[in-house]
Amino acid sequence: MSEPVFELRQVEVTYAGRTVLTVDHLEVREHEALVVVGPNGAGKSTLLRLMNFLEPPTSGEIRFQGEPVRFPVPLALRRRVTTVFQRPVLLHRTVFDNVAYGLRLRGLEPAALTAALLKELDLGSLSLAQASSLSGGEAQRVALARALAIEPEVLLLDEPTANLDPFNLGLVEAMIQRLRAEGRSTLVLVTHNVFQARRLADRVAMLHGGSLIEVAQAAEFFDRPRDPRAAAFVRGELVA
Amino acid sequence: MISQIDSSALWEIIFLTLQVTGTALAISAVLGIPLGALLAFTRFPGRRVLVALVYTGMGLPPVVVGLVVYLLLSRSGPLGSLGWLFTPPAMTMAQAVIALPLVIGLTMTSLEAVDPQLRLQLQSLGADRRQEVSALLSEARAGVVAAVVAGFGGIISEVGAAMLVGGNIAGQTRVLSTAIVLETRMGEFEFALVLGALLLSLAFLVNILLLRLQHRIPYWPGR
Predict the structure, then answer these.
(1) Could you give the ipTM of this predicted complex?
(2) Beta strand pairing status for A211-217 and A67-68?
């Protein structure tokens, strides 16, 4: 079994006295694809923000590669993880500049890698287009490309295909599958979509009402879910 | 046309107008843009009061600013030892005070109008604080340039403060706006109108230059 990249212990996040996330224990293992599922308000996005070091937990401990994470997190550590958000916000620049942004932040030459990613995500012809002129699907592919350009150790994906048509969904999923196959990044994917979870997960974690209610290998989660709410999700039923 | 102003004096007036206003604008931009960013991005006790003060400052009557600067720079005032009263530095100081709240306030509001998700996404991509602010300023550049344009508009044509702290001394502190007042008082309406047209043309040219910046601000995140 591979070593955990992330480990969350007794983590709790509260906003104005309201607890929005409680995780007693959760590991993310190196080079796995952990798919996080759950209804709206389950705490999925909060979990990703914790893992991207964008906010500290109210209490508990986050460990990254065995080391406890202290907030504010040093830049070098922050740069090892990135997120593709459900609603990408791009800079008012060209597609190329957007994809190259993270590389330029690091003082790296962006031309070759950026061009390759644009081609791979079928964005080559849009390289010089203004980001503001893109469709939702194109913008999401640019967001994925700009995250991949920095070759993160951990790639967090927050419902990246939620608003995409089948064509764009296919392109994004194909790229995620390729990342899984290459085994270079650890992936944490948040999705509502049970079919997508089946396609992409090595393991599945289910959040409900701000609590982690089940974590299991994908086959086990889909074939023999323990929690009735997980079972309902697997059957494709509405989970309130 | 009878006027105290010949053509060489006119060039002097135009040059001094540009010098005083340009320096005041540069000072207010250098101080106002970072302060606007600070107010937009940080939360601290008393921030709301500070924002209210900035908004109040955006409507400061120039003549009141002139009076306060006059008192500060007068011989018995706390800055009297500088010997700036009735000199271009005094006019620059007064104009910078008038423009500063405009630049701060409009920079702040234009930065606050940038999608808050962008900030999070820049952090997620590994931007440090300086890179993040630089990118956000670049995103808000239309508003930031508009802030500087507003600051410029607030001072290029103001007359109250320039008259009070400059004294409208020929060859020393006479600028276009104060020259217009002088010519009008002398009944030289035609020449005052010519000066007015010059002032407007100057403002138009500078605004064109500033607005071109909206599209030409370089964008390199740097290390």
Answers:
(1) 0.91
(2) unpaired
